[in-house]
Amino acid sequence: VWEALGAIDVRNAQASIANDFEYILRQVEAGPGMDHLNQTVRNKLRAWFAEAAEDALSELEEKSEVCQRVVSGVIRVSQMMAELGKVARGKRLAQAWYQRMLESGCARTPEAASILARVGYACLWQFEAVTARAHLEQAFKIRQATATMETEEGAELQQWRGWLHATHGDLSGA
Predict the structure, then answer these.
(1) Among 51-60, 94-103, 136-145, which stretch is predicted with the lowest mean pLDDT?
(2) Lowest mean pLDDT: which of 16-20, 136-140, 145-149, 165-169?
(3) Whole-angstrom Cα distance, residue 31 to residue 54?
(4) 128 CB neighbour count, 10 Å cutoff
(5) In terms of domain of life, where is this protein from (predicted)?
(6) Which of 8, 71, 86, 172 is deepest in the core (most CB within 10 A)?
């Protein structure tokens, strides 16, 4: 759905009166342009979708649900928030769920590593290098201990660790 929302093109919209549609398209082209309108529509729809997903996660939290499916949702919503430029919001969501995992005894699982990596990634974008490093290294240790480094999430973690090392001049560690 997220990718479909990102591919919306208002030129494919339908109007009840063809002349109205053509007039609107001409006005858009004369004004801000179709690309700008498409991007605005995409961003609004994606923001709505991300907020609806976050609300659904909150409902699950109220029901005391902690499971793989919910954790996957937290990771995805946090990622959506980052893509929308709401890095801090996605980070807060991931941190809250990691805290919940700590409380439920699930802090040493691959799912916890994924959430910690997402927090570390958000810290990278907020220029919090020390905090980013701490979260990414903790996620790395969990992935090593659970033999889940050779997964898509493990590869993503390695990429983010590499960025962090490279941006601080540690090319051998990158």
Answers:
(1) 51-60
(2) 16-20
(3) 34
(4) 16
(5) Eukaryota
(6) 71
